[in-house]
Design brief:
The complex is a heterodimer of chains A (297) and B (418).
Chain A: E1 16-19, H1 30-35, H2 37-52, H3 61-80, H4 89-110, H5 113-116, H6 118-123, H7 130-160, H8 171-201, H9 205-219, H10 226-232, H11 238-243, H12 246-258, H13 265-292
Helix pairs in contact in A: 2-7, 3-4, 4-7, 4-8, 4-9, 4-12, 8-12, 8-13, 12-13
Chain B: E1 6-17, H1 25-37, E2 47-59, E3 64-69, H2 75-82, E4 90-96, E5 99-102, H3 115-125, H4 130-144, H5 159-171, E6 177-181, H6 189-204, E7 208-212, H7 216-222, E8 225-230, E9 233-239, H8 240-253, E10 267-268, E11 273-281, E12 289-292, E13 296-303, E14 311-318, E15 323-328, E16 341-348, E17 356-366, E18 369-385
Parallel strand pairs in B: 3-7, 3-8, 5-6, 6-7, 12-18
Antiparallel strand pairs in B: 1-2, 1-4, 8-9, 10-18, 11-13, 13-16, 14-15, 14-17, 17-18
Helix pairs in contact in B: 3-4, 3-5, 4-5
Classes of the chains: A mainly alpha (297), B alpha/beta (418).
Chain lengths: 297, 418
């Protein structure tokens, strides 16, 4: 499609714009968001290139991070008698981390969209939504590399050790994973909408963001399994762990890739509902913030 | 006549000053705590500052319109609203065409990316599609004169080169409406000339340009029409030269009360202050109309208020909004002035200014801090003359000052050397 419109002076240009104060709760400029797809792609490209230029390992950092995290987790798991008995711990951790890291990376990178891009937003208009969207897309690449790495590690276990016989990957569940990944993206972006709104108002909270994501990791069954913790909680408090929208997602990942961990339909339905709510309400806050945010910088 | 391409209808914009929720979490908590203790009294008085008030104008396709005004007159706010960076508080703007806005050169440049990657990224940020950049890429590189370095990361570019690339991208944006803020104040003179040339050619292609500048010369050169903003309102709208002259006259109007404490443009920050400025001819008579090449005295009276004054400076502004020259006690190493009150006489033996109107602002610093700044403390005009014995002076439109020089024929040097 060509974007160049040589409109006659009297005709209505496809770029006809009306600028007026808008107090409505919901107004999104989908037309310019669609036009910004090249921009989204270039943001993804920028993030990728700028992050790994002048580093020794380059994109290998994508897998170094989960390897190190897995190591730390294994220490915690041995000390706390957590984790799985059935499958090798590295696989167990890597599978959970796939889902968790995608969520955490999006929130960390898009969670302060306004505060971090203030200088850019003050000088030029483009659909602001393209920033969190581009983050979700570029983290998808990280996820892909980590997924590939997972397959390699899995292959090593299956062909080189006899631990493979305990691994019952569920093919039907694996086919559903792309949808689950989309679910994570919506949830994380929705969460990032909220924190972007908060950090636009209070810059101080930007510093808290990574810390909050860290804390969320510990209340999500990544290091431990949902069952293990549910068993240790008193009856009246079990719902707490299921209320976390990331909990059934991480469990589903391990269920699909390793055959451990359960599928919790009620918890999952709750998670989907909460995701939709976060995403829509967050987007509403986001677009309200974007319209006059620069006045308060 | 054609339909207007931009219609601005009663635009107003208010900024909140000192209202709850304007600052950081700490401030908000402090306000909340204050409210709790004082039973609901507001911590600060809610006051709205109206940056723009009821602004209306229309722009026809192909017009090049300059927007002129003091700092704080609302120019930047207007440009921000036109480029959709922020919204108006009330009113409405209808624009019938693609808007490209250039409030800064090189917005979004990433130092790690190569020149080529940045051209694409910057183009996309400004609203170009990939295909458009593809099509114009060679032109952009040629305009920026950077073909050799196009695949080098931008962080290795000189700042001049970076600006050239950035402007080249922006110049090849092809919107129907181009909104530009003072970006020509970058780069070396030759490149500036090139940029103005590019803008002229853009205008000739029939595109509409809104252009903000402090440089009245550029406004006169580029624009047919100018809109003068003052305190958020349109005070003049019409032929560029007329509007610019009117704007400059308005600035001079303030001269009579320049030393008044109520002068809103005066920045009286410390105890030391100016009380008067007189322009005197070599005979010691007050004058307003000067001749280049003749002696002139500026008699500046001050009160120190007990503070030692570290420097006193006169800025001589010309019609283009440029400081033609500065006279400062620091240049003469006069040291601290401890006198309670007095009159300093600055003397220029041979006035080197070209024909035109000039405004003087007086600035005084105690330690490093600004103590008093009186803009438009006095105005004068130079109606002719020259520092050169011929009486010939350089053209005033292109040249602000003259300097003494000599020129003579040298004996022919032999090429065989010493």
């Amino acid at each position: 499609m060509s974007d160049v419109s040589q409109n006659s002076p009297t005709g209505v240009s496809p770029y006809h714009t009306v600028i007026e104060p808008n107090q409505s709760w919901w107004r999104l400029d989908f037309r310019s968001l669609f036009r910004a797809r090249d921009l989204i792609f270039l943001f993804v490209h920028r993030d990728f290139v700028s992050k790994y230029k002048q580093t020794i390992l380059g994109p290998a950092w994508f897998v170094v991070q989960p390897i190190l995290t897995t190591g730390v987790f294994m220490v915690i798991q041995m000390l706390g008698n957590l984790g799985s008995r059935e499958v090798p711990l590295p696989l167990y951790n890597l599978a959970g981390l796939l889902a968790w890291q995608y969520f955490a990376n999006i929130v960390n990178n898009a969670g302060a969209t306004f505060a971090n891009n203030a200088n850019l937003f003050r000088k030029v208009y483009f659909p602001r939504l393209s920033v969190p969207i581009s983050v979700a897309v570029s983290q998808l690449m990280t996820l892909a590399v980590q997924g590939l790495f997972y397959v390699v590690v899995l292959g090593a276990y299956v062909f080189l050790t006899d631990a493979g016989k305990n691994i019952n990957a569920s093919w039907s569940a694996i086919l559903l994973l792309p949808f689950v990944v989309m679910h994570i993206a919506l949830l994380a972006v929705g969460f990032a909408f909220f924190t972007s709104w908060l950090t636009a108002r209070y810059r101080d909270l930007t510093f808290l963001l990574t810390f909050v994501v860290q804390l969320l990791l510990y209340v999500t069954p990544v290091i431990y399994s949902l069952d293990a913790v549910a068993a240790r909680l008193p009856d009246g408090w079990k719902w707490l762990i299921f209320a976390n929208p990331m909990a059934p997602i991480v469990e589903f990942f391990r269920h699909a890739l390793l055959g451990v961990g359960g599928v919790y339909p009620v918890s999952y339905a709750w998670s989907v509902g909460l995701t939709l709510f976060l995403f829509l309400a967050g987007m509403m806050l986001f677009q309200r913030t974007e319209r006059t945010f620069v006045d308060s910088v | 006549m054609a339909e207007p391409i931009i219609r601005v209808e009663n635009i107003s914009k208010a900024f909140r000053l000192g209202v709850l929720g304007a600052g950081s979490l700490r401030e908000d908590v402090a306000s909340w705590w204050y409210q709790m203790r004082n039973k609901g009294a507001r911590r600060e008085l809610a006051s709205d500052f109206w940056a723009l008030q009821d602004l209306s104008f229309e722009v026809k396709p192909g017009e090049v319109v300059g927007i002129v005004g003091h700092n704080g007159a609302g120019k930047s706010t207007l440009l921000k609203i036109l480029s959709r960076i922020t919204e108006p508080t009330s009113g409405r703007i209808v624009m019938n065409g693609r808007v490209g806005s250039l409030l800064e050169v090189g917005t979004g440049f990433h130092p790690e990316l190569t020149g080529r990657e940045n051209v694409y990224l910057n183009g996309a940020i400004l609203g170009m599609s990939r295909k458009e950049v593809d099509r114009k890429f060679d032109e952009i590189v040629e305009f920026a004169e950077c073909a050799r370095f196009i695949d080098t990361p931008v962080k290795r570019y000189s700042s001049g080169m970076r600006v050239r690339v950035a402007f080249a991208v922006a110049a090849h944006l092809e919107p129907e409406i181009l909104v530009i803020d003072e970006v020509l104040a970058v780069g070396d003179a030759a490149f500036q000339e090139k940029c103005i040339g590019k803008m002229e050619s853009v205008a000739e292609e029939g595109r509409t340009i809104l252009f903000v500048s402090h440089n009245m010369g550029t406004i006169r050169q580029l624009c047919q029409r100018a809109i003068v903003l003052q305190n958020g309102r349109v005070t003049a709208d019409g032929d560029a030269s007329e509007a610019v002259s009117q704007y400059l006259q308005d600035m001079e109007k303030g001269v009579n009360e320049a030393f008044s404490e109520n002068n809103p443009k005066r920045k009286l920050r410390g105890k030391a202050r100016f009380t008067d400025l007189l322009i005197l001819s070599k005979e010691g008579l007050p004058v307003q109309d000067l001749i280049a090449g003749e002696t002139v005295h500026f008699d500046l009276s001050f009160e120190s208020g007990g503070e030692p004054i570290h420097s006193i400076r006169l800025d001589i502004w010309n019609d283009f909004g440029v400081v033609a020259t500065q006279l400062s006690t620091r240049f003469l190493e006069m040291g601290t002035i401890d006198q309670e009150r007095g009159t300093l006489r600055f003397t220029i033996e041979s006035l080197p200014l070209t024909r035109g109107r000039y405004r003087i602002s007086a600035v005084c610093h105690c330690h490093e801090d600004l103590s008093d700044l009186v803009p438009n403390a006095a105005v004068f005009s130079v109606s002719g003359g020259s520092i050169h014995s011929s009486g010939i002076s350089p053209p005033s439109g292109r040249c602000t000052t003259m300097i003494p020089f000599t020129c003579g024929m040298q004996a022919v040097r032999s090429l065989s050397g010493v």
